[in-house]
Each structure stands twice: as C-alpha cells, then as structure tokens.
Amino acid sequence: MKHTDIAKVLQDKAVGQSVTVCGWVRTYRDSAQVGFIELSDGTSFAKLQVVLDKNALKIDPECTKNGASVAVRGKIVKAYRGDGVELNAEAVDLLGKCPPEYPIQKKRITLETLRTIPHLRLRTNTFNAVFKVRSVAAQAVHRYFHERGYYYINTPIITASDCEGAGEMFRITTQSWNAKAGSEEEYDKNDFFGEKAGLSVSGQLEGEVAATAFSKIYTFGPSFRAEKSNTTRHLSEFWHIEPEVAFAELPDIIEIAEEMIKYLIRAVLEECPDEITFFDSFVEKGLKDKLNHVLNSQFAVCDYTEAIKILKEAKEDFRYPVEWGADIQTEHEKYLTEKVYKKPVFVTNYPKEIKSFYMKQNPDGKTVAATDLLVPGIGEIIGCSEREADYDKLVAAIRERGMNLDSYKQYLDLRLFGSVPHSGFGLGFERFVMYVTGMENIRDVTLFPRWVDNIM
Ligand code: 4AD
Ligand code: MG
To answer: Measuring from each residue's beta carbon to the nearest atom of ligand 1, which residues come in under 6 Å?
Structure first.
C-alpha cells in the first residue's frame, strides 16, 4: 500500500500536502460537528490527530473503534494547538475492525496484566517506547564496535561446553522421551551429536578463539540459562553483548566497558528524546538527570575486599550474611550502588572460588582479575574478567572444579600456541534496557519473556 509513516508526517510538517497514512485507532472522541481519531502506526511515540468534518464526510463507524486499523487520506494542516500538524481527513477506509473485547482500552492497564497478553501489549505507549529504545541501543552497540574496528562474529548457539560451569545449560536432544539407555553416557552417545549438547550460556569461549586471531571481536546474540531464578532481572533467554579483546588487561577492559555504556546511553538520549521524557514522567522520576549524571561522572572502582569491609560496617539488616569469600547478593549490590557510590561501580578481584574457571588468577593465590559492573536500581549488568592465559594454571583450575579436561582441549590450545593476555565482558542487553528506561521488570523489556514455568 502506498502510504506515509506517521513519524515522517509529524517530522516534516509539510502543511498543505496530501498524504495517506495507515495505523490503529488509539482513541476517538467527537462533538456534534467534528470527530478526532488519535492514530498510531508505531513509527513514532507521538500520535497523529486525524480531524473528521462530520458534515462533509460519512465514515464507517467501525473506523472509530479502539484498535481498529484504518487508512486515512487527507491534507496536512497546522495543528489547532501547539506547533505540530494534524490531518484533515478526506477519506477513511477500514482495514480491520476491532470488537469491544479488545483488551487495550483507554483505562490504564497494569504491566502485570499486560504480561498476560504479550502479543497485544506492544500497542501501548509504554511498550512502543521500550522497543524504540531497545532498537536504538542495539544499533548503537554495533556502531560502537564497528567504529573501533571490532569484528562482529556469531558464535554457536548449540554447544557441548558449559562456559560458566554453573550447570545451567538447557539440554537439547532428538531422542524420544522413553529412549532406552543403560547409563547417561550411553544416552548421550545415542543422541544426535553422539555426546551431550545444549544451548549456549555464553559465546565467550568461542569469542576467545576469534579474539586470538583478529584481536578485537564482539558477539551480540542470545544466551540461554536454565536457572530457576524467579526474579525481576533473570530470563531463561536473554541477549548478550560479549566483546573479547587480545592484549587487554583488566584495567583496559574496564575502560572499554565504561566507554561503551556511556556511548549507548548518549545514543539513546539523542535518538529517543520523546521516549526518555515519557519514562522520566511516568516510569522513573529523574531518569534523565540520572543518565546525564552517569555520562558526566567516572564510574567507581572498588576492590571486592574493600566492598566486603563497607558492607560489614553498613548499618543495614541484610538477609544474606556478609563474609569474605561469599558472593555479593542483590541487596548488597543495591547498597553499594544506591547508598555508597550513587553511580555505577566496578567491583574487582573476587575470590576465585565464587567465579568461573577461566578467570586470570591473581598473584595472591586467592582472587581473580574479574569485575562486575553494578548499577543503581538493578545491580550487576556486566560480568567481566581478564582470562587466564597460562596453560598450567588453566588446567589446574579446570581440574579443581572437577570439569572434563577433554571438553576444553581447543580452549587450552589457545594457551599453547602463542598465548596472549586478553580480556572480555558480557553485558546483559535486557538489563541495560531496564537501566536506561527505568523499567523495573526484565519481563517488560523483551518481546516474549521466558522464565521458569513460563513460555507464552
Ligand atoms: O556474569 P555472566 O554470567 O558472565 C558471562 O557469561 C561471561 N561469559 C561474560 C564474558 O565475560 N564474556 O553474564 C554476563 C551478563 C550479566 O552481568 C547479566 O547482565 C547478564 O549477562 N545475565 C542475564 N540477563 C538476564 N537473565 C539472566 N538469566 C542472565 N544471566 C546473566
Ligand atoms: Mg555474573
């Protein structure tokens, strides 16, 4: 169909021009003489006001129903109020009618209710804004790395190795539910690949393969985790941005992570002004100031040992105990970012026991050169480390964890043949979108969220 995007009509303000626009009716109101359709085609946050002269134009009443899809031909005129434009309709054609059972009506619907209709919730203001920001941020990710000479690589989704070693891989199989096998080994042997396979929890291990050939790479794809965490920040399927950089040590990769986060925030502020204003008014008061503050400040860096000291001295009732050697829980992350630093903070040098096998072991023998980037309101958004580049130390770390050495032969080869210091990180894309929009539940920043017991 020949038509013009509403975004273009609103932007160009070509008063006097005739156009055809298509979209869904958001609201309709009228008086004796005139009717007003608020029309949205989703191309812009703002809607187009369509003005109907009821005396001159007879239209199908179905065209005024909430959610109905219509095509409108008319003339662009200066808006009655403000400096925008509206459309004086000359013809309105019904494309698809929308009965009153349509759940998206004028009254406010909670995000929780909207979660039960993922196929329709995108037609609301909130989701229109979330997905505009998400799209702009995704483009900015590619721009950031491309401008700096990184290769964009695609790592396998089906894999035999559990990168994080946390046992959270979804299994994949083509065997029937009652396949006969005398042991787990036999079951795996009979399966499609002849060994155990699953969905990747991270593209890092393959990313390291590419980085030790091309120096600077990044991946941007889905990761899968079968964690049963029923929280507002965990999904079973999330999008993962993972750069890997050869010849980079921990401080170098920290610098890159901070620069990238700021680049993405700047892109969103510049390209989504209407959406950010909306979030600032209705979702997180002060969001714009928060983001500008982040752009203008240097992220804090705090050693894990120091963080434990701060948490021990805090006059807070934490649910989880604070002890050197224990993981920093969400409540602790919130305290550090919201009460102590009031900005993003890199916590560095965690005890090796609570981190993954591939992280570079520090000379103290107790900690690893890893860092998590914590942000106010969410907690961890980035997991990052320098990688162990020493063959023997890596073998020892794999053995200590009772992992199967054979599964990591290729990974170990990278340490045999021209090993180099290298580092990388993983940014959870949905968590980043939450951070820049103020949305509080990760299930509201992805199209069809998957979590334990939920696949709609
Ligand atoms: O900290 P994680 O587990 O680190 C890795 O996977 C490394 N291999 C990354 C790397 O160095 N290349 O995960 C990285 C980030 C987390 O900080 C978080 O933002 C996000 O991925 N993440 C999740 N997001 C949503 N739902 C989940 N279940 C997530 N698990 C991790
Ligand atoms: Mg992590």
So the answer is: 163-164, 202, 204, 225, 227, 234-235, 238, 240, 242, 380-385, 424-426, 428, 430-431
